[in-house]
Amino acid sequence: MHPLKGKHDPRSRVFADLTQDEYTQVQRYMERQKDLDISTKQNTLPSENFLFMIDLSVPNKAAVLAYLDGKGPKPERQATVVVFFGKRGYIKEYLVGPLPQPTYHRDVTQERYQMDLPISKRLVTVGEYNLLFSFMLKEVFNKIGVIVEESFGEKCCDGFEQMPRGVRSGDRTTWMSFFRSMDGMYVHPVGFEVQFNHQSLNMSQWSVERVFYNGHYFDSVDHLVTAYNEGKVPKIVYKPTPDYASLKPRSKPLQVGPLQFNLEGSRYSVDNNHVLYLDWSFAFGLSSASGMRVFDVRFKGERIVYELSVQEAMSVYGSVTPGMIVTKFLDASIGIGRFAHELTRGVDCPYQATYVDTYRYIDVDQPIRFRNSICIFEHNMGQPLRRHFADFYHHSYGGMVNSALVVRTITAIGNYDYMWDFIFYQSGSVEAKVHATGYISSSYLVNGSLRHGHQVAENVLGNIHTHFINFKVDLDIVGVKNVFQTKDMEFVNVSLPWMPEHYAMVPHLVENQLNTEQEAALRYDTKTPRYLHIASPKTNRWGHQRSYRLQVVSFTGEHLPESQPEEKSMSWARYKVAITKHKDLERTSSSLYSQNDMWSPAVDFSKYIADNESIENEDLVAWITTGFLHIPHAEDIPNTVTVGNGGGVVLRPHNYFDEDPSINSADGVSIIPG
Amino acid sequence: MHPLKGKHDPRSRVFADLTQDEYTQVQRYMERQKDLDISTKQNTLPSENFLFMIDLSVPNKAAVLAYLDGKGPKPERQATVVVFFGKRGYIKEYLVGPLPQPTYHRDVTQERYQMDLPISKRLVTVGEYNLLFSFMLKEVFNKIGVIVEESFGEKCCDGFEQMPRGVRSGDRTTWMSFFRSMDGMYVHPVGFEVQFNHQSLNMSQWSVERVFYNGHYFDSVDHLVTAYNEGKVPKIVYKPTPDYASLKPRSKPLQVGPLQFNLEGSRYSVDNNHVLYLDWSFAFGLSSASGMRVFDVRFKGERIVYELSVQEAMSVYGSVTPGMIVTKFLDASIGIGRFAHELTRGVDCPYQATYVDTYRYIDVDQPIRFRNSICIFEHNMGQPLRRHFADFYHHSYGGMVNSALVVRTITAIGNYDYMWDFIFYQSGSVEAKVHATGYISSSYLVNGSLRHGHQVAENVLGNIHTHFINFKVDLDIVGVKNVFQTKDMEFVNVSLPWMPEHYAMVPHLVENQLNTEQEAALRYDTKTPRYLHIASPKTNRWGHQRSYRLQVVSFTGEHLPESQPEEKSMSWARYKVAITKHKDLERTSSSLYSQNDMWSPAVDFSKYIADNESIENEDLVAWITTGFLHIPHAEDIPNTVTVGNGGGVVLRPHNYFDEDPSINSADGVSIIPG
Ligand SMILES: [Ca+2]
Ligand SMILES: [Ca+2]
Ligand SMILES: [Ca+2]
Ligand SMILES: [Ca+2]
Ligand SMILES: [Cu+2]
Ligand SMILES: [Cu+2]
Questions:
Q1: pTM (2 decimals)?
Q2: Residue of A168, A300, A489, A538 to mutate for B, most B C-beta atoms under 10 A
Q3: Which DSSP helix (H) or strand (E) runs through B472?
C-alpha cells in the first residue's frame, strides 16, 4: 500500500541542474569558439581568458509555466557561462544553447546587469590564488623566517582572506590574516596580517601594501623585520597551542542515541530532480552560486510555490584588527551551492535519508561530482501535528504525528557551515530554515579587541558579527495574479451591546492591501503588521481570499547603515520582507560579482523596488531576510552549535484551503472510548 | 556501556508532587478539623465549605538549597490546601504538614496574597456547574423547545462559558454560548447565548440576565419566545450540519511513517521525579494549577536552573457576540496542570517514550490518577548539533547529531490543547517551548462578525485572539547571586588605522548591566537589547562573566491596554522579559483566583516590580512572555496545527563554560581522510 499520489513529471527536468555530459558539451563548445580565446585550464592566469563557471540557465517563467501547464513547447535548455576575459579586461555572461549540443552563444551581460562587468569585479580563481600564495611566500614568508620561528611556531601559517578587498571600485587589496595550520585554523590566529595589492592582472605589479603584527602596522615587510630586530615592536612569543579546535571526539562511542527508521519503506520518491511526497510534489536543484532551490511546488497537484531559493548569506564583522574591521562577506559572490559537499550519514542527515549527487562546474577544468551532497528524508518530528483530547461532554481523542519531508544541503564556505532545510508539512506549510555551525571567524587579541567581542581562547577574540540570509519566495497562489495583504489586530473601544454605558477595548482584525513595491518593502527597523500574505483575488469556500502567510523567524542584528558605500551590495537586508513584481531579469537579490565590487555592485536589490511598480494583481515575489546577531562566546569553540543559531520563514496556508488538509492524511489517529 | 553519569538523588523528592497516599492523608486530616466544617464531596454546594484542591507546597528556596547542597536538614513536606468556605464567604489557603501524617494546618492566605479572598473569587466547581446546568435546563431550555427544534436541531446544545464573568469585582454573571453537541462542539456554535447571574451562593437567587439569539438581545427567555413566536426576530433555520470538526481519519492507515527507536536502550533514567540524561539531571513535577515544571536542573552536577515552570496561558478574544466580546481566559485560574491527560503513544510522544503517571486532587472527592500524563524521551532531531567540513588547507570532517531529551505534557483546557516541552540539549542549552493545537473558539456569524476574524465554516466565525504564555525561569548561575546583563551591537564610525582619512561604520559590542527591577522590565512594545543574560560575577577561563542567555522566540499580538481594569490580572504580559529579585512569596505570576476577579486579582505581577528593588548580585528570577497572535482561518478546522503556532525561550550558555561542552559527548564523529 504505497501512499505515493501522483506521478513524477518529467517536465520538471526544465529545472534540473546540468548533467556531467551537458557541462562537458558546453565546455567543449566554448573551447571551439576560437575568437573568444578561452582557456579552461584550472590554472589559467588572471591575464588570460578563463571559463569560470557553467550553470543551468532556468528559462523565463512564462515559457516554463506554459510548458508545465501543457500550453507551450518545451523551452530550450540553456546554460549560463561566465568567462573572465583577462586579456580584454571584462567579464561576460553568455547564454549557451541548445543543450545538450550547443550551437549558439549570446552575450547577456548587459541585459542581465545593465552594466559592463569590468574584470576587477571577478572572483579570485584558483589560478589567481596560486599566484597569490607564491607571491606571499616569496615577498613575505621568505623574509620573516626568524619572526615565524620565534612568534608563530612551526605550524605557521594558513591565510584566510578578508573582504571586501579595499574601499572603492577597482580595489583589489586584500587583507590576509594568518592562522596556525591546525584543525579549525579559523580560531587559531597568530597575530599577523598582510595586505596584498593584486589589482593588476600581471603579478609583476603586485605588492605588499601593509603589514600588521601584534597590533602594530608597517608599510612593508622590511619595516617589520627591522622593527622586530631592533626590538621596536612588542614580540609575540610562540608557545605551543592546545588543539582546542579539533573536532576529534574525546570519548569513545558509547550507547547509540535514538535512530529513525522507515519500517515500511520511504513514503517519498525521488526521480532525477523531482520529488513526490504524500500530497506534495516539487523539483529541486542547486545553483553553484546561490545554493539550494525548489521549483513548481505543488500540493495535490496545485502549484503553490514557483520558486523557493537561497539568495545570499551575508555577514558584517566588527574588529580592531585590519582585515576584519571592514569584513563584509557576501557568500553568494564566492558561491554558496559550490560548497555543498558530501553529507555525513547519521550526523548531517539520518542514516536512511536519500542522498543525491550533484555535478558542478565552477573554477575547475572539468565538471566535478559531489557525492551525497543533497539529502532528502521524511522525519518524525516527535510531536503531534495536531491533536485534541476531549473530556468535556464528549470523550474522545484525535491526533496525528508530525512527519514531514526535509530537503537539505550544508554548505561549508570557509569557516562557516550553513545548513539549509526546506521542509514540507502535511498541513500544507513549507518551511525554509537556515542554521549556522562550523567555526567562527576570529582575530588575534590586541588592544581594543574586547570592544568587538569576547575572548574565546588564549589570545583569541571571537568577533561580533551579523548573519543576514535572504530567501526568494515566488508564491503563485491560484495562478500568478496575486496581491500582498497584511493582517493584524487593533484594540477598539466599544460599548457592550447589553450594557451600552460600559466600554471595553476589543480586538479587531485590521486588513490592508499594499499596492506598490515601496509600500510593501517592510524595513527591519520599523514596526510591521504581524501577518503578511500573498493572496489570490479568488476566494475559498467561506468567501475569503485564498492566501499563504509568510511567517518570518528572525533574530537579526543591525543592518549596515545605508550611508556606507558597501551597503548597496546588500540592500535586500534592509527589509524583513520586500515584495516585487516578478521579472525574469530580477532573478537574484545578489550576484557573483558583488563581493569584489561592493561599491558598484552588479545587483543592487533596492533598484528592484526603486521604480515602485504596482503589485496589485501581479506576479509577486517575496524576498525574505532572516538571520541572527552573533556575539561569539566560549561555547563557540570548537564549533558554533545549531541550537538557537538560525532563522527562516514558514509559508502557511491561510484560507487557501477550506479546511486543514492534514485531516485527509492516512496518519490520523482517533480513539473513541467503547 | 551505559552512558549514565551521576546518580539519582533522592533529595529531589523535595519537589515531588504528592503521592496518592499523601493526598488522602491531607484530605483525611482536613476532614478531621471539625471546626472547619469542610465537605470533600464532589457535589458540595457553593453555599457549603468545600475542600477544592490539595497540591504540593514547595518549601522555601533557602531551605531547599541548604538541603540539596548538604548544608541543612530535609525541609518539612507540606501541602497547600484550598478551601472554599461557602458558609463563611471566603476562600482560605492552608499549609498542611508534615506529610505524610499531617498534624497542623496554618492559614497562609494573607501571607500569600496580602488580601482576604472573598468567596466570589473562587473557581466554579463541579458542584456549582451541576446547579448551573439544572438551572439552565429549567429556566432556559425547558421554555424554548420550539426554538430548539426549529433553530438548533436535535444536537442542541452544549454550553461553553465565556470569562470573565462580568465587568467588576463580585460579578458572577456568565455568558454561556451554546454549541451543537458534536465532536469539536467549539466550532459548532448555534447562535444562542445566555447570561446567567449565579453570584449568590444560593441558587434560588440565580437569574437569567440576558438572552442573545441570532444577533439580537432579549431581557429574558420569555421575551425571546414572544418575539420568536411573533416573528419579530429573524429566525435561525436548523439544517443538519456536516461533521466537519470530527477528527476521525478519513482514510485508512497506509504505510507507516518514520519511527524512532532506542536500539541500545534509552540513555536516560527516570527515578520517581528525578531524571538523569547524559550530563543533565533534574527533578520534575506538575502543579494542578500552573502546570509543568522542573527544578534543580544541573549540568555535570552544577546547578543552572533552580526552577523552570509554566505560569500562565492567557488569551484575549475579539467578537461582536456578547460572550466573546469580553472574553479573556486565564488558564492557570482554571488549572493548567489539572488537564494534563493521558498522552497517546506514537502521536503525542514517540512510542518508546517513558510515560509517567501523575496524581492530582482538584475539584474531586479523592485523588485521581492520570495515566501516562507526562512523557520523557530522547529525540534525534534529524540534524547536526554542530559540524564542520574542511576542504581549505585541511581535509576533515567533525560533527555530532542533535539528540536531546524532551519532557512533555499536553494540557487540554476546553477547546485548546497546549503542548509544553522542556528540552535538554547536549550543548548545555535548555529550551521551554509551547505549541497550541486543538479547537479554536468560535462564534455564530452575525452582522459585524467579520471585523473580528474569518469565517471558517457555515455560519461560523473563527475569532481573532491572542495567546500569551508566561514562564518562570529561576536561573542560578554559579550560585544565587547574579546580575542581569544585556548585550547588543552598535555601529560606530571609525577611522581605518592604515588609512586614517577613511572612515567606516564598524560593529561594536555594547554591554550593559540593569540594576533595578524597573530597568529590567522589558516591555513588548519597546525596542530591547538583543541579548539578555543572567550572569554571575564569577568569570570563565577567558575572564568573561559566566552567564546564560535568554533567547525568546515570540510572535505575540497586542497586549490588552493597561487602561482596562482586567489588565492587572495579566500584567506580566506587558513584558517580554522581566527580572525580579527572588522571593518565596512571589512564586507565581498568576493565581487560581485571577479569572473570577480580574479587577482585583489575587496576584498582580506588576506589584513584584513596583518596589523597584535592586537586582544587583541578588537571586534573580526571569519571567518570560511568549505567544502568538491567532487570526483563525479555514485551516484551523478541524484543529489548529502546531507548525508555526508556538513560542518559547532557549536558555543558552554564554561564556558559562570555557568551550562547548558537547565536544565531550560520545556522540561526536570525526572523519579524517587516510
Ligand atoms: Ca520593480
Ligand atoms: Ca508569484
Ligand atoms: Ca520586587
Ligand atoms: Ca536565581
Ligand atoms: Cu556567526
Ligand atoms: Cu488560538
A1: 0.98
A2: A489
A3: strand B465-475
